Amino acid sequence: MTLAVYRVDRQGNRHVVRKAHEVTPLKWPEFSSAWPPCRCLRHRNSNRP
After folding, report:
1. CA separation for the pair 40, 21 (Å, rounded)
2. Which domain of life is it from (predicted)?
C-alpha cells in the first residue's frame, strides 16, 4: 500500500506534505490508537441509544 499526505488550498491546488512511500497495513489496529470512551451523560455507563 502506498501513502502520501497532501493539502489542497482554496483554489484547488495540491501541495505535498509528505511524499508517497510504501506502508504495511495492520491486520487489526492497536488498542492505543482507539478513541477513549465518551464521558457525556448520554453515553455514560454504556447507556447508548
Report:
1. 39
2. Bacteria
pTM surpassing 0.85? no
Q: Which residues partner with 18 through β-bridges?
A: 5
**Residues 47, 13: Cα–Cα separation, whole Å:** 45
* Alpha-carbon distances, residue 42 vs 31, 34, 35, 48 (angstroms): 24, 20, 17, 7
pLDDT in tens, 1-46: 899 999 999 999 999 999 999 999 888 877 765 677 777 777 766 5
